């Protein structure tokens, strides 16, 4: 007689089927969780990698666009081996090149293209606008930006505080080369024979009381030397009675003066000295704007 096998309980069969179905589902869920946990890590790693690559590229720019591996590694505070790995990637993208003769690294063609595009949109007026607003808001002074026009330093952007000082200058006003702080910045820092000739004409037409404020032997030359030494200019009751002002230069990427940033106020409550709070703020804002224009101070 053939032995008979008792049927497996239905409940056991059901549990087996459920378990067999649950196992792949559990693995899939675990895989999904692992992938979800790994995704943020991978994103952070990619971001950190991009940040390091940009730090290497900016370090090369700070070193003048050409540097050895050791100098570049020291500049960005990373090991030479790590910097080299990033340089390989940057070279592949055309952002960096290597001089085969010296083995030094230099900015590549793609970096040059980016720089040219940035310079095309480096408008001193647009870049200086936030500085004007900050000066107005923090110091409650009237501020403006001027460029050198065919008739002289010309205001092209103007900001006033809530309680403005009454002055007869506005956008389009042409400032004196000798008697305004704005004009003195251009006179002292813009190497242009036409500007010097215009200053000479102004001097000849000025009142004796104003001329007495300048050096008797070399009035224009002494004023230029003073501005160059201070890298800013200030006036008190010269261009406008009861008004004092301080101005600082904006330089472009070639190191050429392209604009002047000026703050002015009523003489009684306005310290126009270069080392006063207004003078320091104006110089600080002008330096920051120059940096955005690509200017790199030497020495």
Automatic annotation (TrEMBL):
It holds the Pfam family HTH_IclR. Residues 19-39 have a biased composition (Low complexity). Residues 47-109 form the HTH iclR-type domain. Keywords: DNA-binding, Transcription, Transcription regulation. Residues 110-295 form the IclR-ED domain. Residues 1-51 are annotated as: Disordered. It comes from the Bacteria. GO terms for biological process: negative regulation of DNA-templated transcription. The keyword Transmembrane does not apply. The keyword Transcription regulation applies. One of its GO terms (molecular function) is DNA binding. This is Transcriptional regulator, IclR family. It comes from Paraburkholderia lycopersici.
């Amino acid at each position: 007689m053939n032995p008979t096998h008792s049927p497996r309980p239905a409940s056991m069969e059901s549990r087996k089927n459920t378990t067999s179905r649950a196992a792949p589902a559990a693995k899939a869920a675990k895989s999904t969780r692992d992938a979800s946990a790994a995704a943020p890590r991978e994103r952070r790693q990619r971001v950190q990698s991009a940040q390091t690559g940009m730090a290497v590229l900016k370090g090369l720019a700070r070193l003048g666009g050409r540097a050895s591996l050791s100098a570049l590694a020291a500049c960005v505070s990373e090991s030479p081996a790590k910097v080299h790995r990033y340089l390989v990637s940057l070279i592949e993208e055309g952002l960096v090149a290597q001089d085969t003769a010296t083995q030094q690294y230099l900015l590549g063609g793609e970096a040059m293209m980016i720089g040219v595009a940035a310079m095309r949109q480096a408008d001193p007026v647009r870049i200086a606008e936030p500085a004007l607003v900050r000066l107005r808001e923090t110091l409650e002074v009237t501020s403006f930006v001027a460029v050198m026009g065919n008739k002289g330093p010309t205001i092209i952007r103007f900001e006033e505080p809530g309680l403005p000082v009454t002055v007869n200058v506005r956008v389009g006003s042409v400032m004196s080369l000798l008697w305004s702080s704005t004009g003195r910045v251009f006179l002292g820092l813009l190497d242009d024979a036409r500007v010097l000739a215009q200053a000479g004409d102004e001097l000849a037409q000025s009142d004796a009381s104003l001329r007495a404020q300048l050096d008797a032997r070399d009035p224009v030359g002494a004023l230029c030397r003073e501005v160059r030494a201070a890298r800013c200019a200030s006036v008190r009751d010269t261009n406008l009675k009861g008004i004092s002002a301080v101005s600082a230069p904006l330089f472009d990427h070639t190191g050429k003066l392209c604009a002047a940033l000026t703050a002015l106020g009523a003489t009684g409550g306005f310290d126009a000295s270069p080392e006063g709070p207004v003078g320091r703020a104006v110089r600080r804002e002008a330096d920051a704007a120059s940096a955005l224009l690509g200017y790199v101070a030497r020495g």
